[in-house]
Design goal:
Length: 202
Amino acid sequence: MYKQIELTYGYDALEPYIDALTVETHHGKHHAAYTAQLNKLAEEAGVQDKSIEELLASLDEVKDEAKRTAIRNNGGGFYNHNLYFEEITPGGAKEPTGKLKAAIDEAFGSFEEMKKQLTNLALTQFGSGWAWLSKDKNGKLYASKSLNQDNPISLGTGQTPIFTIDVWEHAYYLGYKNLRASYVENFWNLVNWDVVASKYDQ
């Protein structure tokens, strides 16, 4: 069974950057629905024993096209949101340190340049989607973006996400309306880089 991440903070804990109603709706409605639907679909397809990473990396093994598409969408929604809600918190390290900082400096030149590139990816994603910071098996970092609920795993890049920015409208529209740029700018205030570093080290 795939389990939705439990928040370690209250719905209002991310204010003023993300309002309580958005967090409650985003986590309690949207993410919960992806999780429930994924579990239903995975059981029907007989793939419920796979980890979510294994499932997203082997979607071609689901022969029924409609089920494969639904698992891709709901499985991506489950995985992507688990990462998203784990990496944001009212506390935690505000900048990377250690091995993660070194990898960022090597790949992008600086932390600020990485933020600039990921912000641009988030703002230029047409419609719903995500911006990603991912690593390959050698620890090299990459920035990318994806449509809908796709991610670097389901897209077959061989990379593992360690950080994401959700730019679906349900992530920000209640508080920011159409001002995606303001949401993304403020989002950086919520990232716990200790969590991202732990993802990098795994």
